């Protein structure tokens, strides 16, 4: 039956993963992934997550029944409040639909399937560059993916003029994917003034904003500050899609826990949208998993646990900021040619180094350090003990 199945086209992200996996070197280092690592290079389970899990394990009244199609109700309410703000007028006016999904990816996919079925304009714009899975998710749902300019390699910053020009030229009704904060892969976010201009343009051109909120808390260390761009759009009363993930900010990667929020213009519209989203979910996976949702709900419900979470989140962010500073200083100390200030200016989990493919291949071959071929490194995968020196030496050798 399957003899005509062709091998898949080469995937640049997977090929880095395989190259790193097959490298026997004891000092190899894979900086291509998007998961937080401790100073010892180990995955981190937050203390507050362990505590919540303990509490759940001790609660004998819990069972393993199916959740409803839209997931755990408390989880949905608390997740919506986390991104929109507890005092959001949209929530008070009861025109927000939130459903538990399989993390950020599942939320994007359910949102995309809904849009392909119910939105008149099928064109969806993503930033250039963007997270590699965005085009795959949206294409598969039947949307037509286009890009808007975002990153300027010359300044290693935002191409704001290009972004506004491209969004101005988008057809009315087009969907625009905006990363809420800590842009992947560039680490470059618009300022709040720039967000305001983007918002005005999006609304005046009747575009539909679809926020990807995978890193709330990871840009500034504050959940509220990182929600500002989204809240700005919701405050104007217009429609808005938000895909939310707890993979990074609670370290719940493998639990696959996130939410899709759709802000509608009225309670009546929201009621219909809700029932139609359930029809997307039902044939796809029927009902989402219970464990991750229970962990998040336990933490968001309890003010002490919530506070502990914000402290641990800040701890992860400050370790990343310190890695940025240390890498920058190590390159300065070596006199590595070029301006490396982008490493400390960029935010979030990643740094877009500006290294080219030849340099990246050299670093992999000679120093056993792996990064994606666009030059993105996960700052969260570095440690000050050995790795910083190893990476700074490698970059210096590749440049000179
Ligand atoms: N969106 C962006 C920009 C990401 O970088 C990621 C993960 O790396 C995701 C969404 C989805 O992550 P998850 O499905 O684990 O929530």
TrEMBL record:
EC number: 2.6.1.1
GO biological process, one term: amino acid metabolic process
Cross-referenced CDD domains: AAT_like (cd00609)
Broad enzyme group: transferase
Pfam family, one: Aminotran_1_2
Reaction(s) catalysed by this chain's protein: L-aspartate + 2-oxoglutarate = oxaloacetate + L-glutamate
GO molecular function: L-aspartate:2-oxoglutarate aminotransferase activity; pyridoxal phosphate binding
InterPro entries on file: Aminotransferase_I/II_large, Asp_trans, NHTrfase_class1_PyrdxlP-BS, PyrdxlP-dep_Trfase, PyrdxlP-dep_Trfase_major, PyrdxlP-dep_Trfase_small
GO cellular component: mitochondrion
PROSITE patterns reported in the protein's UniProt record: AA_TRANSFER_CLASS_1 (PS00105)
Keyword set includes Transferase: yes
KW Transferase (keyword) present: yes
Ranges in a coiled coil: none
Cofactor(s) it depends on: pyridoxal 5'-phosphate
Keywords assigned by UniProt, alphabetized: Aminotransferase, Pyridoxal phosphate, Transferase
Segments forming domain Aminotransferase class I/classII large: 28-387
Family: Belongs to the class-I pyridoxal-phosphate-dependent aminotransferase family.
Note: In eukaryotes there are cytoplasmic, mitochondrial and chloroplastic isozymes.
Oligomer status and interactors: Homodimer.
PANTHER family, A to Z: ASPARTATE AMINOTRANSFERASE
Name of the protein in its database record: Aspartate aminotransferase
